[in-house]
Design goal:
The complex is a heterodimer of chains A (398) and B (259). Chain A has 398 residues and is of the alpha+beta class. Chain A has 3 domains: 2-125, Acyl-CoA dehydrogenase/oxidase, N-terminal domain (Butyryl-Coa Dehydrogenase, subunit A, domain 1); 130-242, Butyryl-CoA Dehydrogenase, subunit A, domain 2; 246-397, Up-down Bundle (Butyryl-CoA Dehydrogenase, subunit A, domain 3), CATH 1.20.140.10. Chain A is 50% helix and 16% strand. Chain A is built from 10 helices and 12 strands. In chain A, β4 (149-153) and β5 (156-167) form a beta hairpin. In chain A, α8 runs antiparallel to α10. The model of chain A has no long low-confidence stretch (mean pLDDT 94). Chain B is an alpha/beta fold and 259 residues long. Chain B has one domain: 3-Layer(aba) Sandwich (Rossmann fold). In chain B, α2 (68-77) crosses α5 (189-195) and α3 (95-109) crosses α4 (128-136). Chain B is globular. The relative contact order of chain B is 0.17. The mean pLDDT of chain B is 91. The chains are: A alpha+beta (398), B alpha/beta (259). The interface between A and B is medium-sized, with 15 and 10 residues.
């Protein structure tokens, strides 16, 4: 089963009918609702809450979670291609879906039946939008060095601290927060003593700082989140106390695949823009795509995008098969985001002067691509993950 | 309430549309096929009425095998079931034949309310709802921008140049809708998957008790005697402003009776 999707026009092989339905629906909504709204919303910094609601109603915000929990019951191979189509239409949306899915991860995988019963339905149904609070001003790549404290107070925890670079800050309905219940943030065992909490936005003491002024993705709210004696009932602790970092690590690998899919989508959008322009634009009496210097550039761009897609799908299939995929997720995130950066840069070059002005999306793609080399672990961290896995390699030597 | 929404598969208005040289009927293979856009508003209105008042929404479509795509789309939006009238002898039916065939099926499956888009984007006659109502012997309420049902009473706003008329009737009835009436929903992922399992009954002419002599191209009362491709768009007129640009532009518009 292969067919071009209406959004990106990419020829995909669908694992099954459900994949065709989900990816087709994402492409349709992307083409009709997201892509036409993206440029203006990014210019004005309008947060796309209505668009997230639309995706929630369509059932596209919870695809990778089990159907019995209220999710779509889809493998990552399908979910990530949905994210790719959404990101190709509007990166803020694709990345937002990835963040939301990440925010539901702790509740879906470590929540008790009672917690899931109470909270998970509206989270997966898209009525509630999530944010993921791990990074802090002083702990980014070294996430385990987080300092936000959760101290026991009667039946509750009191959260105190500041989280940084939080997508959907001030817009989300709930925050999945990692805080320290024990241990020393500077100590060797700093990963121990971190706990994971479900914190509704309405919790007193939870506030968002003014939004960061970003280079791109201005429609997506990014800000610090402050927790000032925020009282969180013990019933909102996810998983065991002190074992939260394992949730964060497991979520991180999945999150990296989400970024890889976003990067592939953005790269595809930049490629489509460049190819469309190069076929229309005539100089010296013919379309500029017929000049080899430019045609070869587009060929390299198309090859890199296809390779990025193949790499994230290969990692996704390992995850779906229950195989280890941490290294492959890091590779996919690294390669796809570096590809997005290069393809977006080259797309500006193909459009020449038109690439540098806001009338065309190429300059926006370039500004948006950069963030993908930074989020969910910088690409230097990805190389660290890959090289460390090589150093302790047991499989496939030689 | 038993609601039937008539749905037609049409060539995509964004693709190049043409007639066949041989018999001047629509060349369906030459263009992408989509659900008639106004029919999506009819489906949405049917779903909303069923949600508000209870009952079922049945999709009725007459067309070749390929029309199942449009039917599945309608089912994925939330309709309960569908009837597909498909028979080679129906090909080339004109309005009289089409309305006779659809009326025969509607007579058989029964209805409280039939909802249609006010016209299709291919033939664009906009006359089918009236013909259908006439054949069924029920009131027609056309160009509805709002529909309200209260028991067996139905009331609509009929869109007009000057605003709207309020038109009332008693069920059963036929309603045609305009795009101002609502905003059609997207299918949901689960809706698309569920639609694959919803019942679609196919009916032939014989199943519906339709006389083959009343339908099809050979029995059509109207005939396409000639047609031509739309001429390519003419280049526009460039008005050079030499201080009198405003007057020249106004003259251009006045000449064409725009002002």
């Amino acid at each position: 089963m292969t067919a071009g999707t209406p959004g990106t026009g990419v020829e995909r092989s669908y694992p099954d009918e459900a994949a065709r339905a989900a990816i087709g629906l994402a492409a349709e909504i992307g083409a009709n609702e997201l892509a036409p709204a993206a440029a203006a919303a990014e210019r004005e910094g309008r947060f796309p809450r209505a668009e997230f609601r639309l995706l929630g109603r369509a059932g596209l915000l919870a695809l990778p979670y089990p159907a019995e929990l209220g999710g779509g019951g889809q493998p990552y191979e399908t979910y990530l291609q949905v994210v790719e189509e959404l990101a190709a239409a509007w990166l803020t949306i694709g990345l937002g879906v990835s963040v939301h899915v990440l925010s539901c991860f702790g509740m879906a995988t470590a929540g008790t039946p009672e917690q899931r019963e109470r909270w998970l339905g509206p989270m997966l149904g898209g009525d509630l939008l999530g944010a993921y609070c791990l990074s802090e001003p002083g702990s980014g790549s070294d996430a385990a060095a987080l300092r936000t404290q959760a101290t026991v107070d009667g039946q509750d925890y009191l959260l105190n601290g500041t989280k940084a670079w939080i997508s959907h800050a001030g817009q989300a309905d709930f925050y999945t927060v990692f805080a320290r219940t024990a241990g020393d943030p500077d100590g060797r065992d700093r990963a121990h003593g971190i706990s994971c909490f479900h914190v509704p936005a309405s919790t007193p003491g939870v506030t968002a700082a003014p939004a960061e002024h970003k280079m791109g993705m201005r429609a997506s709210a990014t800000a610090q989140m402050r927790f000032e004696s925020a009282r969180v009932p013990a019933g909102q602790l996810l998983g065991e106390e002190g074992r939260g970092f394992s949730i964060a690590l497991a979520a991180l690998d999945s999150g990296r695949l989400g970024i890889a899919a976003c990067a592939t989508g953005l790269a595809q959008a930049a490629l489509n823009t460049a190819v469309g322009y190069a076929r229309e634009r005539r100089q010296f009496g013919r379309p500029i795509i017929e000049f080899q210097g430019l045609g070869f550039m587009l060929a390299d761009m198309a090859t890199a995008v296809a390779a990025a897609r193949a790499l994230y799908l290969a990692a996704a299939r390992r995850r779906d098969a229950g195989l280890p995929y941490g290294r492959e997720a890091a590779m996919a995130k690294l390669f796809a985001s570096d590809t997005a950066m290069r393809v977006a840069t080259d797309a500006v070059q193909v459009l020449g002067g038109y690439g540098y002005v806001e009338d065309f999306p190429a300059e926006r793609f370039l500004r948006e691509a950069k963030v993908l080399q930074i989020v969910e672990g910088t690409n230097q961290i990805q190389r660290l993950v890959i090289s460390r896995s090589l150093a302790r390699e047991t499989r496939g030597k030689g | 309430m038993n609601i039937v929404v008539c749905v037609k598969q049409v060539p995509d208005t964004w693709s190049e549309r043409t007639l066949r040289e041989s018999d001047s009927t629509l060349d369906r293979d030459a263009a992408d096929a989509v659900i008639n856009e106004l029919d999506e508003y009819a489906i949405e209105e049917g779903l909303r009425l069923a949600e508000a008042h209870g009952g079922e929404v049945t999709i009725l479509s007459m067309g070749p095998d390929r029309a199942t795509e449009a039917i599945r789309k309608a089912l994925s939006m939330g309709a309960d079931k569908a009837v597909h009238l498909v028979d080679d002898a129906l090909a080339g039916s004109d309005l009289l034949g089409t309305s006779a065939a659809l009326a025969a099926v509607l007579g058989q499956i029964g209805f409280d309310l039939v909802i249609l888009g006010s016209e299709s984007t291919d033939a664009r006659t906009g006359a089918l709802p009236a013909m259908l109502a006439e054949r069924l012997g029920v009131p027609q309420l056309s160009y509805a921008s709002k529909v309200e049902v209260d028991g067996s009473a139905i009331s609509i706003h009929r869109l007009a140049d000057y605003g709207y008329d309020t038109v009332e009737a008693t069920l059963p009835a036929v309603v045609s809708v305009v795009e101002k009436i609502n905003e059609p929903r997207y299918p949901t992922f689960k809706g698309i998957m569920a639609a694959k399992k919803k019942p679609v009954q196919t009916m032939s002419l014989a199943d519906a008790g339709i006389d083959p002599a009343t339908v099809g191209l050979a029995n059509a009362a109207s005939e396409v005697t000639g047609w031509a491709k739309r001429p390519p768009r003419q280049a526009g007129t460039i008005v050079t402003d030499e201080g009198d640009g405003g007057a020249k532009a106004a003259g251009f518009l006045a000449e064409r009776k725009f002002i």
